Amino acid sequence: MPLNSLHYTIGPAIAVAATAVLVAVCRWVFTPTRTRGNPDAPFQHADFGMLVPVATLRTSSEADRLRQLLRQHGIRSTSGTAALGPIQVNADGKLRRHHTAAWHVMVFPEDSMRARAVVAGTERDWA
What three-state secondary structure class fits 63? Predict the structure, then answer.
């Protein structure tokens, strides 16, 4: 049987095609799902990790002023952007609704009662 140049290209072509199929299958299998739960579900059970939200404010500068006030009372705090959606925390720790960008001020659970008392008692000083 005579050998021609076609025999030397068929083997590598099959190897490249098999590798491409394996890569496509691996990408399909190992791609993470894009759904992160039900987007229509209310945010009643927001997860802040170990932290407890004590107030939700409109701007980061208001959140920084509240954090300084809490720091003056010896309470460690942090702030972070609140997701756009139906969640807002008032001074009593209850969730309310909002539809604009906001900032949460959060503290550790053992400091939450004192922080809420500071927020409720000195609301006019930082707002």
Answer: helix
